[in-house]
Write a structure and sequence with these properties.
By secondary structure, this protein is mainly beta. The protein is built from five helices and 59 strands. The strands form 16 sheets. Strands 7, 8, 11, 12, 13, 51, 52, 53, 54 and 57 form a ten-stranded antiparallel β-sheet that branches.
Amino acid sequence: MSLTSSLYAGTSGLSNTGNALQVTSNNISNINTLGFKKGTATFADTLYQTIGTNAGSSQVGLGMNVDNVAQVFTDGSLETTSNATDLAIGGDGFFVVSESGSEENYYTRAGNFSFDENGALVTSEGYNLQGWYVEGDTGEEYGAVTDLILTEFTSPPDDTNEITVITNLDSDAESKSMVLSNLFQYNEDDGTTVDSDGYEYQTVVSVYDSLGSSHEVTIYYDKKSDTEWEYIVACDPDEDNRATVADTDAAGLLARGTITFSESSGDVVSMTMEELTGVIGNVEVTGNNTVDDVHFEIENSDVIQEDGYDMSLYYDGDDWTFDTSTNPLPDAYSNADIIFSNETTIYIDLDGSGVTDLKISLDEYATADSTLTFDINNPSELHIQDLENVVYDGEVYNNTTLSINDSSVMTTSVEDLSIFWDVGTETWYWNELDPDNANDADTLIKNNGVVGTIGDVSDPSVMDVAVKDISVSYDGSTSTWDWTDGLIPVDYPDAIITSSNADGFVIDFDGTGTSILTIIDLAGEDTFSFDVNPYVPPDEYSSATLSGDATYCSIDLDGSGNEDDEDDIVFTFEDELEGLVDSTISFNISGSTAWRTVTTDEAEETGYYQFTADFLGGEYGATETDISFNIGSKFDGSNWINDSLSSTQYAISSSTTYQDSDGYASGDLTGIEVDSGGLVSGSYSNGQELALFMVALADFNNVNGLISEGGNLYSATTESGSAVTNKPGENGLGTLSSYALEMSNVDISEEFVDMIGLQTAYEANAKIISTVDEMMTTVISMKR
């Protein structure tokens, strides 16, 4: 029995040492297998037999067995490759792969992935790599873990939302134009839009529409004063498809404005912007909609040939109507009619032909009592705000320089205006006698005192000469009013005071006995002073004021009276007027409401002013885009704050320091990149890089519980536990290395040492068998 047991014990040693040698052999054979994890065999003794001895019962072993074959999941060495989708895991974790259409997952450390014909990222055996899809701009993953399939072989275009143009403008430059935007005119012969003699500097930046087409935007600069520059933003007129500008002589002109620099540092102090709205201007709306919610579409430009101001619409809850009680229809469009309307749409027939000429679309539903007003601008010289046909007569002839400091106030075209210098009073007046308007006593007579009321003006035509500081005084002893110090107005030598009492007086200016002017409510006052001013500004600029002397004349067209806005138009005389003759300056005003001031409130969201461009011409402005103009200075809600790189005004030649735009054309996929966190990005021929998807990694509580499936794959079991999936680098998972593959972790020297040990054990077990064989032969020979 003992010999047989010894034989079986030796046999178990041979058999299980051979099994262990098979593990070593498998390790060595897979020394170049990607991601292979070597196995280690451990032994355990088997059952014991109890025998009797002098010491009592004892146990005798019956041999050995393989206790466990475990895999060692240490990292293998990395081999660099030239393929971006070759991935190696540094640390714990497995790639998750799956057969196409199957929900069963496998796990592998072999990262030799490639794209198949369908764009799927697969192993060499066609298993799909698993992960998440991500937002292209942010790289944030969304959805569940799924097959990673590349669908973005082409990068979609993106329209430009911001241009950055950093320039230095020469502080020693001279002004070349009076109003830079007025010079804009398309020359079909050479394609130019602004005469090169009219500006100091220009720079060009490329922008993109939503379909990826490139367009050139040009910014022109000209010096306006010591610290202020004008600029205009323009594009190719043939590419300007804004509904209210296309096909006009202003097509291509997008915006204008000013940049003010510090006199001491040359840095940007502030800037302004006006954008060209086109044929439709001065839009105002009440109710749910804002100005940006109102869109105009011109159906028939032939009927729009004249100015028409204050087109006023009213919504009663069901329909839109012209509110003629507030603003009568302008003469040019007196036959206008609304063909159709509802809470979001208005169709207008402008000439009474019964055909829609102008369409209006509202983004929000109009509420009852909503209003909408707008102007129609003559498309001819749509953008021009200028003085034209200026004629100088008298001492101002060949002696005058014209400056237009604020053209934006020229909103209405007016012809045959003039101003004159009255030698007698040394005062500038409007040279427009308007008796009808002069019936308004407050227009004709200017009271210089703080009390007293100007009463009736029975015949204003008599008061046709401007006179300042006419003074009348009260004599208490006679209870009458008379000319102060007996000074009868020189320009009205026949003027007499026909009646008077303590409360007032009546003046007959031409001595005909007719009561021309009545002054009342003067009780308690001793002196009353007033001016006669029969010359009034034009109705279109009724608030306009004149100021000046023998050296200059200034017109404040909008009558704002602000210190920064008194000199809208200035005539400066090289030689002081000597008072020899009256002088006259006559002119026409070419006005337009096609310019809209962009407010600083609109700049607060982005920090920059924005202008509108439309290169595609979608209906109701659907393809319009707002483009921010960044000159290196950002509005913070109160002030303009300069960046480290910003526009300047230094005494060196004007030049472009930096320019850029954020749009781009479409592009083809040119390369793939994978970062250590598993984010897979695509590089495209348009210079863009888009996030495509995120690789998932999985780990297990007991990796030795995984079952090897061959082909570098493992399957989960109840012993391994369920896979815990996450992004590389998180929750203890390793990170990824692109352009690298993990080799096996087999150490050939260790395997040879193990093999020598197993060989020795095998030989020793074989010796046991041969020895037992000899002993059994001896036992058998005893019978003989």
